[in-house]
Every structure is written in C-alpha cells, then in structure tokens.
Write a structure and sequence with these properties.
Length: 510
C-alpha cells in the first residue's frame, strides 16, 4: 500500500472548522455509518481509498467459502452508493478458476482504478492485477480485458500494491512463505528488468516463514516492506526489508537489507507501514501480552532511516495502546498531515467485537484530543453485529474513513461496514493566513497566489500531491503566482523553505 505521504507539520494558523475528533460524523450514512452487501452471504473488506473527487472506494471479497470473488463498492461523499459505478455502486467478479480476493487498490492520476489481489485454487495462488475505468468497467487496454493474471509455478500471495510515477506497478506479498516483491509495466506485463525476471524474494537468514503485509515507497524510490517472520523457536517477530529501485536488496538498511525484532515478550505482528517526511519509518501492528482473553496491545514502532529503532519515540522506540483488557488487533495505519499516526483494527473482549482506532502524537504518546474520552482511543460497534476494522483512509478535509466488515450474531452473513469520523484537521476551504505569509484563493482552479510578509527573504516553494510526489518547485520573494491549472483535482501540500524555517499549508485544486 503506498503510504509515502509528504506529511508535514502545519506551522500556520488557518481558518479552521472544528469537530470533536474521533466522533462519528452524523452527516454520513445513517448516523455516521453505512453497511453494504455486495453478495447475499459473506462480504469482507481489506482496503479503502478516497478518490480525488471525494468518493470512497471500499474493496475485498464476497461470496461463500467456496466461491469468493473480488468485490468493490463506491460511495458518494454522503455515504450513499454511487450509481455511476457499474450501475448500482458495486462490482463483483472472478480472476482465476476458483477464488479471488482484492487486497489493495489505488487510483491512478487519470482516474482509473488499479486493483491488486490474488487468486486461490485451494492448492496455490498467484498475484492478480485488475484495472477499471472510472465507471467500473474493465479497462481493455490493460492485460487481457482489464485483467493481468500472473501465473507461476510458485505459491504467490499479494498483500499490497504501489503505483510508481512512471505508471509502473509494484506488488508485494510472499512467495512460498518468503517476502516477495514483483514489478509490472503500465500495461500489466511483468517488468523483467526488476530483480530476477521481475521478482525479488528476500531471504531472512534461512527463517522458515516470512510474510509481507505492507509496502511504502521512499522519495528516492527505494522500496520499504514490512510484515512478520516465524523464527526457529516458533516465535513471530516483526520483519522489514528495503530494496533499491531495481529490486536489489539495500544493504544500508538493517543487517544486509533486512531487520527482525520483537517489541513484546513473545509473538509480534506488523500489519501497517507509513513513512514520515524526514524518512523515518512507522510500523504498526500488535504484540502478545497473555493467553487469557488472548490479550494483545496495539503498537507503533518508529525506525530511523537505517532501520535502527528511534528511541526518542514512545518507550524506547515503541508506542502502545490498549483499548480493552483483551484482544487489540491492528490492521492498517495512516498519517495525518501533522504526522500524527492513526492505527486501526479491532478489539475483542467478553464476546464484544468492535472496530477500533488509536491516534498517536509525533512523540508516540496517545493523543488526548482524540476520542470521546480524551484518551486517544475510539471504539465503535453496530448493534447486533460483530465488527472488525480493516482499513483506514483520510478525506481531503482529514475526516477519517474507517472500513471493515461485520458478522450477524448467528455468523451466517457478513457485510461491508464504512464509518466516517470527525477530525479537527484542516478543512482547507478558506485562505490560509499567519504572521509570515498567506495563500489564496483556496480552493484554487487556475492560479494560486503566495504573499510573504517578509519581502527581504527568498523562499523555496514546493508543491506535493498526497502520495508524496513533487509536482512544482520554484523560488519566490515577497509575492508569487503559481499556475495550477494543469494539476489534477484534489488536495496538495505547499511547502515553503527559507534558511532553517519550514512552513506547510494545504490547498485544494478544483
């Protein structure tokens, strides 16, 4: 999942619209939540994305245990299903002969939807890529009829995808229970110049099993992957690796390009990954505490760029959260524009299953401004359902989309569940002002003006999209006008540098 966001400290005082962070947004769906059944029986969520137009994509698989198919739903900003997507807002289809699953997705700059997943024939699986047009139809210029089904003699399981600036695609997962990354051309064919014939398998000193769960791309195009490994003592440990852009292992990271460590007393699992603007690496997951109630705590570990633990974060490099005195499981993580980390997942205690979130400050402490109890944590359940949080995304106004699935209490059915939460992040619909500069109009359609109070200094101006790609770079003094008409609609960050000072604001391109 590409989470290489340029997420920078907001050092200005914009005109803000505030809401209680971490409370349900009643303007979305029914009291903040919507449920959807793509198939009458079972529906499971694995990933979510907010499109540049604000519509929300939620995807996973649906069907029965013998007939799971890729499944996706698209919602309007009010939570209603978007009928312009495949006629009713949902789509379900097969890739492969038996079962297929969506594990990740991204939206391309041209609006097309790129889906990463896997197939399974009850013996082995393969990576699968699908590209849809904006209306949900298959893009016939990609693969065969919009589908690139990569068949090998190995057992390949995809967990994450990233779209590169040149349109090529990275998929990460595991091959025969070993970390594996593959690269594909923009048309869906394998890029044989990457690794060995398009694939890199990462060794972990002969450990019997290792599983990638997340991926992020650095600004220098190096590839960071994380997950967990099983050692010879039958103990799960957090695992990470870094590859160069050509698929070779980056030996400047960890030990010969790999890293394995524990943060708890026994089994530790990593399920999420994000990169800070300074290149430090956040790994989200959970650690084992005790077998009673299957106790686990949520954890976020921060690594320096060389793979060493950043001991200035949390407790010697690790932040923790405990919502219940039972099972606290992580599934996904996202960084806000102020670099606070939101880790999401599920809690289970005394038969209650809830979706869960925790927000951490940049030093690893729980954020007391988040959640109704002011403890940095949020849990939510739907009456009569068992709820599991699986994926998280941020809207342009930083409202939080928490997606997952819920079982009926008899266990005979499950459905997509999507909730939206208020956030005290910046709305981005007014001019930004402070003692140093102002930026206007915001939103902007054709031209953006930056006006500095200090006319004597020269400022370096950089504009980044929300995937971390630099789309503009120039210098201004006193006042500058930037033509943004060629930028795609969406949210961007404007970074101004002068000597050792950095300020960042956000603007919306219409």
């Amino acid at each position: 999942m590409r989470q290489t966001f340029i997420l920078l400290m907001l050092l200005v005082s914009p005109i803000l619209i505030f809401g209680q962070s971490g409370t349900l947004d009643s303007s979305f769906g029914n009291g903040g939540t919507v449920t959807t059944s793509v198939f009458p029986n079972y529906n499971f969520v694995e990933t979510t994305r907010v499109q540049t137009d604000g519509k929300i994509l939620v995807a996973g698989n649906a069907g029965t245990s013998a007939t799971y198919q890729m499944a996706i739903a698209r919602y309007n900003t009010d939570g209603s299903l978007d009928s312009s997507f495949n006629g009713d807002g949902t789509l379900r289809f097969n890739v492969g002969q038996v079962k297929s699953f969506i594990t990740d997705l991204v939206q391309q700059p041209d609006g097309k939807i790129l889906i990463g997943g896997r197939t399974w024939d009850n013996v082995a699986g393969n990576f699968a890529l699908v590209r849809l047009n904006e209306d949900g139809s298959f893009d016939n210029t990609f693969g065969t009829g919009g589908i690139s089904h990569i068949t090998t003699t190995e057992n390949d399981v995809s967990e994450a995808i990233s779209l590169l600036d040149d349109g090529k695609i990275l998929m990460a997962g595991y091959r025969n229970n070993n970390f594996a990354v593959a690269k594909f051309n923009a048309d869906g064919s394998v890029d044989t110049f990457f690794g060995v014939n398009g694939w890199t398998v990462v060794p972990f000193d002969g450990l019997p099993e290792s599983y990638i769960r997340a991926m992020a791309i650095q600004n220098d195009d190096k590839i960071v992957v994380s997950g967990f490994s099983l050692n010879f003592d039958n103990r799960f440990q957090i695992a990470a690796a870094r590859l160069n852009a050509d698929g070779t292992i980056d030996n400047s990271f960890g030990t010969d390009g790999t890293l394995i460590f524990n943060v708890g007393d026994w089994n530790d699992f990593s399920d999420a990954l994000a990169l800070q603007a300074d290149g430090k690496i956040l790994i989200g997951g959970h650690k084992w505490i005790a077998n009673v109630h299957q106790r686990h705590d949520l954890i976020v570990a921060r690594l320096n760029t060389d793979g060493s633990l950043d001991t200035s974060y949390g407790n010697n490099g690790v932040a923790t959260a405990r919502l219940v005195d039972g099972a606290n499981y992580a599934s996904d993580m996202v960084l806000q524009s102020d670099e606070k980390a939101i880790l999401i997942g599920s809690t289970v205690f005394e038969g209650e299953y809830k979706m869960a979130m925790a927000r951490f400050n940049t030093d690893g402490s729980l954020d007391a401004t988040f959640g109704p109890a002011g403890d940095g944590m949020v849990s939510v359940e739907n009456a009569g359902l068992e709820d599991y949080g699986r994926a998280v995304a941020l809207q342009a106004d930083e409202k939080i989309i928490l997606a997952g699935h819920a079982y009926t209490l008899d266990g005979n059915n499950s459905m997509f569940v999507v909730s939206r939460f208020l956030n005290d992040g910046m709305v981005g619909v007014e001019d930004f002002k402070n003692t140093d500069f102002r930026i206007y109009p915001n939103p902007a359609r054709e031209q953006l003006t930056i006006e500095m109070n200090d006319a004597s200094s020269t400022y370096q101006v950089e504009i980044y999209d929300m995937l971390g790609k630099k789309v503009y770079n120039s210098e201004i003094q006193n006042k500058g006008q930037i033509n943004v008409s060629s930028l795609a609609s969406g949210t961007y960050l404007v970074k101004l540098n002068s000597n050792s000072q950095t300020s960042t604001v956000r603007f919306v391109k219409l």
